[in-house]
Specification:
By secondary structure, this protein is α/β, with parallel strands linked by helices. It contains six helices and seven strands, in the order E-H-E-H-E-E-H-E-H-E-E-H-H. It is globular and about 45 Å long.
């Protein structure tokens, strides 16, 4: 059975909603194990055991969250040269842009020699003040449906042997 690992970090709930929607979509595909883990809990063994990945992070200070950076720092060298060619997707909950956060993950994935199967999906909340940034987020249904669709696409590709 193939395994999809979804690693996420979320402080205000937006990224969590996106990751859960992707997991829901992926779980609709029979014959696939979906592992949804907070970045603080995910270990190198989880990365090595997975056949594909979805990385979901908020944009923090124009980059990935510190907890996602910690995840990559802890797992990068243990997986280097052992996961080449595996598929991945990126989900970003951004306050203003999100492109730099996506670029950071793409650079890490390039080092791991992963294969991106779709452009990063960035949901912009336009939170700009400290109060807006720290406020719990509610992601619109249209965006969650897109996350679910991306999860299902990844799962279908895995079970059919495309990825």
């Amino acid at each position: 059975m193939k395994t999809l690992l979804i690693v996420y970090h979320s402080m205000t709930g937006g990224t969590l909603q996106m990751a859960q929607a992707a997991a829901r979509g992926a779980r609709s595909e029979a014959g696939l194990r979906v592992s949804l883990l907070r970045s603080a809990e995910a270990q190198a063994d989880d990365v090595l055991a997975a056949d594909a990945y979805i990385f979901a992070t908020p944009e923090n200070l124009a980059g990935i969250s510190g907890m996602m950076k910690d995840f990559f720092d802890r797992t990068y060298y243990a997986a280097l040269e052992k996961i080449n060619g595996r598929a991945f997707l990126i989900l970003i909950c951004a306050g203003s842009d999100g492109r730099n956060a996506a670029q950071q993950i793409e650079r890490i994935a390039a080092g791991w020699r992963l294969r991106r199967i779709a452009d990063p999906y960035i949901v912009c909340t336009y939170a700009q003040t400290p109060e807006q940034i720290l406020k719990p987020k509610r992601i619109e249904q249209e965006a969650l449906s897109r996350c679910e669709e991306l999860g299902k696409t990844m799962a279908s590709g895995l079970t059919m042997g495309i990825f």
